[in-house]
Specification:
37% helix; 262 residues; 26% strand; alpha/beta; 6-stranded mixed sheet; 4-stranded antiparallel sheet
Length: 262
């Protein structure tokens, strides 16, 4: 027996032949990739390449038209649906999987009528049934990690965009997820606020958190990711380490993309 192979852990995420069609337009044409525990995978590519759709399919915010997603060792059960091609078969399975995934969106999606502290404890107390005192104590730790403890009693409207996005990251962390998904988390921010959000994400990566990140921040992807996927017209055109993707691209499409962003 090969001892190394026998001890190898199963990937935390496997995406196989993922396809998605909107109104007869095939947005994803067969996406394949895996992520191991502790991987930071950056999805890059031009507008309309399928990056965000891929991310949303992982969490079933968009139901794939075809393909398989295996996450935490479970293949998400899908069944035929006349309207959309496929739909989730087991709501309980999806609920259990989502409770292990933290997602941060382009928009901050904070509840405007709740304070930052209340935003962070909402899911732990209402969904995970964590006692309120415990949830508050843990929320304070997450807020300290994103440098927002002093803003805990303020409402989202009182915070800058960068602060709101950091609060959204703290809220995603509050369920102590096994996988973090980031959908262009800095795209809605003014340039001077981008750095503070990226700094928090770098800290999370340094902790060994498993992360899938859709980003247009190429230097950030080069610095933080250990795997980079270049998507083009609904497929993974090229994948590799940051060094391979950014400094030794093979496909002509990737070479053109790299030239365009320099």
């Amino acid at each position: 027996m090969d001892l190394d192979k026998s001890l190898k852990t199963e990937p935390i995420l496997e995406v196989n032949n993922l396809k998605k069609t909107f109104n007869h337009i095939e947005v994803l044409k067969g996406i394949h990739f895996t992520a191991d525990k502790g991987d930071v995978v950056a999805l890059i590519g031009g507008s309309g390449s399928g990056k965000s759709t891929t991310l949303r399919c992982i969490n079933m915010l968009e139901t794939p038209t075809a393909g398989d997603i295996k996450i935490f060792g479970q293949t998400i059960d899908l069944m035929a649906d006349d309207a959309n091609g496929l739909k989730v078969k087991s709501k309980n399975q999806l609920r259990n999987i989502r409770q292990r995934i933290g997602m941060v969106f382009q928009g901050f999606h904070l509840w405007s009528h709740l304070t930052i502290e209340q935003n962070i404890i909402e899911v732990p107390t209402q969904v995970l049934a964590i006692p309120k005192d415990q949830a508050i104590e843990e929320a304070h730790e997450w807020l300290r990690q994103v440098n927002l403890f002093d803003k805990r009693h303020q409402y989202p409207s009182c915070l800058s965009g960068g602060q709101q996005q950091r609060a959204a990251i703290a809220r995603a962390l509050a369920i102590n997820p096994d996988l973090m998904l980031f959908d262009e988390p800095t795209s809605a921010l003014d340039p001077e606020l981008v750095g503070e959000v990226l700094a928090v994400m770098k800290d999370l990566a340094s902790e060994g958190r498993s992360m899938i990140i859709v980003t247009h921040e190429m230097q950030f992807a080069a610095d933080v990711a250990n795997k980079v996927l270049f998507l083009n017209q609904g497929v993974v055109e090229e994948s590799g380490t940051p060094s391979e993707i950014f400094y030794s691209p093979k496909s002509e499409k990737l070479k053109q993309f790299i030239r365009a962003i320099k």
